[in-house]
Specification:
Shape: elongated
Strand order of the largest sheet: 8-7-6-9-10-11
Number of strands: 11
Bound molecules: uridine-5'-diphosphate-glucuronic acid
CATH architecture of the largest domain: 3-Layer(aba) Sandwich
Order of helices and strands: HHEHEHEHEHEHHHHHEHEHEHEHEHE
Radius of gyration: 24 Å
Number of helices: 16
């Protein structure tokens, strides 16, 4: 990164990093001890992936905390940015005390992050809120001040205790995930009763208590956050014998959602998908990222492989990552090339470039003209005019006389 290279795809980040390095406001080091000694505020932003039992794996976090314990030389504010299970901030404080670190040497501040991959830079500079949890008022105010320049100081700041701050993060992610599972199930029902999910979501979204955000149905939520954080919250609640049926239901619905695309394929092509060529457009868990963690495309490819289908795949950014999991499926360097001779085209990620494909010329090269648009990004009428048999998710166009 010191060589001005951001090793993953995130719009706008490379430019930002290069600019900051050039202006000597940013540098990277592998010498953690040195960084700790020099820093006044230490942000811990390591990965906390899901362990087998659904709990978050905190080994990376504690490795950093151990290094802090070994190297702390004067007062530090230790800010936990990583998404950590309820009460972790308190446990870290106790852990440092148990290592003989004087309480006068540190304060712990929980400061969860709410940015989304794919729009991380925009989200960072334009947060809806800043959450700060600490049992020390001075530290809370100090960290709150760091965010003052954002949106000219208009960002609402919630100052609270550490466990409430942790809960805000988990409850927000689990709530948004449930909202998606909810709209996915309603979309599936729309498919059966012939109602249009886009109009339904628009109509629902006009209610200021609901809003239109996160009401886009799809192949199921993925990414490194919603599945993992919902599971972690569920595991913690179960440790305390507290039922979280809504969160559990949202995860069950999400697992099921990942089978919908295959069902749709079978409805169109017949129950036997053996040797049928399925073109998958979109491998990342959402658009504008190369991240494939918990991407619905993974499950879809596994299911198609079980059916012995032939898989042609294209993604503008995520092919390199997907090759590591599925080295033997056919990858193409353009959507156009991937669609050639396909029995069905399956859109799994809402990349904008899929809207701009020359669909008319795609039509002339496919074996069968089926499009299953699991993100509802194409115009059904236009697809039909071009000769395709279009199948979105929960889409219906009533003929109104
Ligand atoms: C999510 C949260 O939105 C962020 O606020 C949070 O900071 C982040 O997790 C995190 O905890 O680090 P992210 O996973 O990057 O962000 O992406 P989202 O835009 O939330 O999408 C998550 C999944 O939900 C994707 O698979 C996306 O396609 C799906 N989704 C989203 C839908 O299917 N429908 C929607 O309407 C919205």
């Amino acid at each position: 990164m010191n060589k001005n290279v951001v090793p993953f795809f995130e719009p706008g980040l490379q430019e930002l990093v290069v600019d900051a390095i050039k202006n000597k406001r940013l540098s990277f080091t592998a010498n953690v001890a040195n960084a700790i000694v020099q820093g006044d505020i230490l942000f811990i932003a390591v990965d906390t992936p899901s362990a087998e039992d659904g709990h978050a794996n905190l080994s990376a976090l504690y490795k950093v905390v151990d290094t802090i314990a070994k190297n702390i030389n004067n007062y530090k504010i230790i800010v936990i940015k990583s998404t950590v299970p309820l009460t972790t901030n308190k446990l870290i404080e106790q852990y440092l005390l148990s290592k003989g670190i004087d309480h006068g040497l540190f304060d712990i501040v929980s400061n969860p992050e709410f940015l989304r991959e794919g729009s991380a830079v925009y989200d960072f500079f334009n947060p809806d809120r800043v959450i700060i949890g600490s049992n020390n008022k001075t530290s809370s105010n100090f960290i709150a001040n760091l965010y003052k320049p954002l949106k000219n100081g208009t960002v609402p700041v919630v100052i609270t205790d550490t466990t409430s701050a942790e809960m805000i993060k988990y409850a927000s992610n689990a709530f948004l995930a449930s909202k998606i599972s909810f709209i996915n199930e309603i979309a599936n029902l729309c498919d059966i009763v012939k109602a249009d999910i886009i109009t339904v979501a628009d109509g629902m979204g006009l209610d200021a208590r609901i809003t239109r955000h996160f009401l886009m149905p799809g192949p199921g939520f993925g990414g490194s956050c919603f599945p993992k954080d919902s599971r972690e919250l569920l595991s913690t609640a179960s440790d305390y014998n507290v039922p979280l049926e809504v969160v559990k239901g949202s995860l069950i619905a999400n697992e099921r959602q990942q089978h919908i695309a295959i069902q749709k394929l079978k409805n169109l092509l017949g129950a036997d998908l053996k040797d049928k060529t399925i073109c998958i457009l979109g491998l990342s868990f959402k658009a504008n990222t190369d991240d494939i963690r918990y991407s619905p495309a993974i499950k879809t490819i596994e299911l198609l492989q079980k059916e012995s289908a032939v898989i042609n795949a294209y993604d503008p950014a995520a092919i390199e990552n997907m090759i590591k999991i599925f080295p033997t499926i056919n990858y193409y360097h353009s959507a156009q090339a991937a669609t050639k001779n396909s029995d069905a085209i399956l859109i799994l990620t809402e990349w904008k470039e899929f809207k701009d494909i020359d669909w008319q010329s795609v039509y002339t090269n496919v074996k069968q003209p089926y499009i299953i648009d699991m993100r509802n990004i194409l115009d059904p009428t236009q697809c039909q005019e071009q000769g395709f048999i279009y199948n979105g998710i929960g889409r219906f166009h009533p003929v109104v006389n």
